[in-house]
Specification:
56% of the residues lie in helices and 7% in strands. The chain contains 9 helices and 4 strands, in the order βαβαββααααααα. The protein has a 4-stranded mixed sheet, covered by helices on one side. It is globular. The mean pLDDT is 96. It binds glutathione.
């Protein structure tokens, strides 16, 4: 299998962590990416396979997939053990919703803090994004009441939110230390070998470009 990701891709990192957790043999290739030109020019395979021209893209023989959540679903079907969605139907539905909320409710606010988007946004829009990020942290602190991971056992929901909050952290909107459950969760998830490898490589990439980030 081949996985196209990027050196600073939040969605790509989700899938890189998932393949490591699943123990699936995958050749990971980072497409060209620079802080100035971002993903231009697009990698030809990514441009051909994904009409949105985005990473991650997974190729397994004649199966060509894109979108990190679609890739999660395929990995789960391909290798059910260890499970990364809860087995219970209702718990699984809740976990899927948490993963979606991380990508589509929380992360868009983080994207607004990225240099290009921030330069185009007003102070009010940036403040609104930071407010929404903190409201989400509070919600996840409540979700973690009585749990070690967001959906009970470690799941794709944890992978998604760990990566999203990692980006929020180095863009200046990290979770406050007053959220004790979230802090413990972050240490628990961040300590996993899969997560250490993927975020470690990102930290190195940022350092190489003169940007510092505390490894979280
Ligand atoms: N919903 C997609 C989002 C993918 C996405 O936004 N990928 C970014 C990198 S993190 C990308 O390739 N951006 C390049 C572009 O949009 O031109 C997923 O879950 O995979």
């Amino acid at each position: 299998m081949k996985l196209y990701s990027g050196p600073l891709s939040m969605f790509g990192a989700k899938t890189e962590i998932a393949v490591r957790e699943k123990g699936v043999a995958v050749d990971v290739e980072h497409v060209p990416f620079a802080l100035t030109t971002l993903y231009e020019p697009k990698h030809p395979d990514v441009a051909r396979i994904n009409p949105k021209q985005q990473v991650p893209v997974l190729i397994d023989g004649d199966l060509e997939l894109f979108d990190s959540t679609q890739i999660f679903e395929y990995l789960e079907d391909l290798k059910p053990d260890p499970p990364l969605w809860p087995r219970d139907r209702r718990a699984r539905a809740r976990a899927r919703l948490l993963e979606l909320k991380s990508d589509e409710v929380f992360f868009p606010n983080v994207v607004l803090l990225m240099p290009r988007q921030r330069a185009l946004a007003s102070e009010a829009q940036a403040a609104e994004a930071v407010g929404a990020i903190h409201a989400f942290y509070e919600e996840m602190e409540r979700v973690l009441d009585g749990k070690e991971y967001l959906a009970g056992a470690f799941s794709y929901a944890d992978i998604a939110f760990f990566m999203a909050q990692f980006f929020a952290g180095f863009l200046g909107a990290s979770m406050p230390s007053t959220h004790a459950r979230l802090g413990a969760w972050r240490a628990r998830v961040g300590g996993r070998e899969s997560v250490r490898q993927v975020t470690g490589a990102m930290v190195q990439f940022l350092k190489k470009h003169g940007l510092s980030v505390a490894a979280r």
